[in-house]
Design brief:
Shape: flat
CATH class of the largest domain: Mainly Alpha
Order of helices and strands: EEHHHEEEEHEEEEEHHEHHHHHHE
Number of strands: 13
Radius of gyration: 30 Å
Distance between the termini: 58 Å
CATH superfamily of the largest domain: Trigger factor, C-terminal domain
CATH architecture of the largest domain: Orthogonal Bundle
Structural class: alpha+beta
CATH topology of the largest domain: Trigger factor, domain 2
Number of helices: 12
Length: 419
């Protein structure tokens, strides 16, 4: 890598012009060829050489992928060599390109200067949490609803839960995602497609049924509007009833009597209210911290955070078998509208990160190697992951940053004042 030029721009921006030399470039082209040589056909040969591929498709055919492989290391080397701290994503442009290498420019936003007028002694209103009589009764009702009495019955009615095995067929052929075993379906919940649950009324444990349905027009393209038959087997039928808070029920829940159960419910409700009050107080303190920050935030930082949020959304949707386009169609929103809404949250996230990162600097917060190792081990155990795989997903630099921000927040809250 050769740094050809460094140009200072307005608004804390800088433009680097960087040359990737012939040896690195040719090595990258060779690697691209090794990966793609068997993919692109050349008439008259089963295993085309790199020269034959270039003659057939053009020498620049391999260039794009080779640029993608080499620009990032070259940029990191240049930024490190110039001792720059940058923010957001760079604006990249290839200036020259050929067999002897290439030159590209990168316009970078420098990490903004942050000034916190105050981060200790911030104050906010604190409402000491205590349960009202209405909240106490509501907590008991919530407990009754979420801890029902479960009874196995011999015939399903609306509202009962049927433990199902099922497999769906279209034109006699099973389709992807149409099979399940031991699925707990509450009849009348609307969980399955229209018409499915109604046909299970009256089913008995051990019974097999064929359920004929038509997929809605607004569904995955391969199934939308099609007729299907689900072969269903009921393992068992369960009815859940709301209990009375009497001594017999309390004993079944592991308590001495009804008074002990009511005391437990009240304690949990109080704890929940205390957690909500703490979160409200912390939000107010963070809002004041950010208000006390003076900073010009580069647009690239906000745009980068929006991109990260949308990428996380797409990954979560993919885990549910959905695409972003399907999700947007369901909520009747355009991609541009989603980006605009995400921008509000992204700006809040960037402001929080900037403010807490400045606290990290002011407090000289450092994370030891032992803390890093301990955190990786704890996270690997919690997520039931191989630690090496976790380290790939969560680079050490990001983990350290997260731990520093957590400690910075603790310092801010430890010195906050309740009024």
């Amino acid at each position: 890598m050769i740094l050809v030029n460094r140009e200072e721009l307005e608004n804390r921006r800088i433009k680097l012009t960087i040359q990737v030399e012939k040896e690195i470039w040719q090595d990258a082209l060779a690697k691209v060829y090794e990966r793609s040589g068997g993919i692109y056909p050349v008439a008259g040969t089963e295993h085309p050489t790199r020269q034959e591929i270039e003659e057939t498709y053009g020498a620049e055919f391999l260039y794009e992928e080779a640029v993608n492989e080499t620009f990032a290391p070259a940029l990191v080397e240049a930024v490190t060599g110039e001792h720059l701290t940058v923010a957001g994503r760079p604006e990249l442009e290839v200036v020259t390109l050929g067999p002897d290498g290439y030159t590209f420019s990168a316009v970078l936003d420098l990490y903004p200067e942050v000034k916190l007028t105050q981060y200790k002694g911030l104050s906010a209103e604190w409402n000491a949490p205590s349960l009202t009589d209405v909240e106490r009764v509501d907590a008991q009702e919530d407990y009754r609803r979420t801890h029902p009495i479960t009874t196995e019955i011999d015939c399903a009615e609306n509202g009962d839960e049927v433990l199902l095995d099922f497999e769906g067929f279209v034109d006699g052929v099973p389709f992807d995602g149409g099979k399940g075993e031991g699925y707990p379906l509450t009849l009348g919940s609307g969980t399955f497609i229209p018409g499915f649950e109604e046909q299970l009324i009256g089913i008995k444990p051990g019974e097999d049924r064929d359920v004929a349905v038509t997929f809605p027009e607004q569904y995955t393209p391969e199934l939308a509007g099609k007729d299907a038959v689900f072969k269903v087997h009921a393992q068992r039928v369960v009815r859940r009833t709301t209990p009375k808070l009497d001594d017999a029920y309390a004993v079944s829940q592991g308590f001495a009597d009804a008074d002990a159960l009511r005391a437990h419910i009240a304690a949990e409700a109080t704890e929940s209210k205390q957690a909500a009050a703490k979160a409200e107080f912390e939000d107010a303190i963070i809002a004041k911290l950010v208000e006390n920050m003076v900073v010009d935030i580069p647009e690239s930082m906000i745009a980068g955070q929006v991109d990260t949020m949308l990428m996380e959304l797409e990954n979560n949707l993919a885990g549910q078998g959905m695409t972003l386009d399907m999700y947007l169609e369901g909520i009747k929103m355009s991609r541009e509208e989603l980006q605009q809404r995400a921008r509000v949250s992204a700006l809040d996230a960037v402001r929080y990160d900037l403010a807490m990162t400045e606290v990290v600097r002011l407090e000289n917060i450092e994370i030891s190697d032992d803390e890093i190792a301990r955190q990786y081990a704890q996270m690997a155990m919690f997520y039931n992951m191989d630690e090496a795989a976790l380290r790939q997903q969560l680079p050490q630099e990001q983990l350290v940053h997260n731990l520093q921000l957590s400690r910075a927040k603790h310092i801010v809250m430890e010195n906050a004042v309740r009024i």
